[in-house]
Amino acid sequence: VQLQASGGGSVQAGGSLRLSCVASEDSRQMSFMGWHRQAPGKERELVASVDRAGVAYYVDSVKGRFTVSRDNAKNMVYLQMDSLKPEDTGVYFCTAASVQSAYVPPYRARYDWWGQGTLVTVSS
Description:
By secondary structure, the protein is mainly β. Helix content is 0%, strand content 52%.
């Protein structure tokens, strides 16, 4: 499975960006699709994830500002990022977990597939 992300860029604080990611195979085989973030000087973290039924998970720092969604018909996952803050700066990776992670919480799933990463820069 290959994941191809797009939509990163530079924006001022308070602005918005939308990330998109397309999977090379049927996304219905992916229990979770989501986005990890590698911020400068910080550990990589799961930012948001959505299961096959559309139930979303968010890390506390982005709740109320980010929206993750997926379209299984198009094998795609999206991340709408609003009210961006400088601390949202980082490389965002599109990720997906196989059905072997279907019965664990998204933050404990093993994300088997990773995209190439797209840079998001938020200036103050």
